[in-house]
């Protein structure tokens, strides 16, 4: 297993589940909101957004 994507509604426990999965699997935990939004909620322009690249 190389990666796991967790999706769900607000308040569904995505962060809790993701943290636990990272602990169990040793995979890195990446919150996409922290890459797409600056503090205060301003969106990072697409040209500046650096999302993790898949590894093979």
Tell me what the structure shows.
This protein is mostly helical and 56 residues long. Helix content is 30%, strand content 0%. It is built from two helices and no strands. It is globular. 0% of the residues are buried.
Provide the structure class: mainly alpha
Q: What Rg, in angstroms, do the CA atoms define?
A: 13 Å
Looking at the chains present, what oligomeric state does this protein adopt? single chain
What amount of the residues lies in strands?
under 5%
Q: How helical, in percent, are the residues?
A: 25-40%
The overall pLDDT average reads 84
How many helical stretches?
2
The residue ranges in which pLDDT falls below 50 over 5 or more consecutive positions are none
How far apart, in Å, are the first and last alpha carbons? 11 Å
Principal-axes geometry comes out as: globular
Q: How many beta-strand segments? A: 0
Question: H/E series, N to C?
Answer: HH
Largest sheet: none
């Amino acid at each position: 297993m190389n990666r796991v994507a967790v999706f769900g509604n607000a308040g569904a426990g995505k962060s809790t589940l993701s943290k636990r999965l990272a602990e169990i699997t040793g995979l890195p935990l990446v919150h996409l909101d922290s890459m797409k939004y600056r503090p205060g909620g301003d969106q990072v322009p697409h040209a500046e957004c650096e999302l993790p690249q898949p590894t093979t």
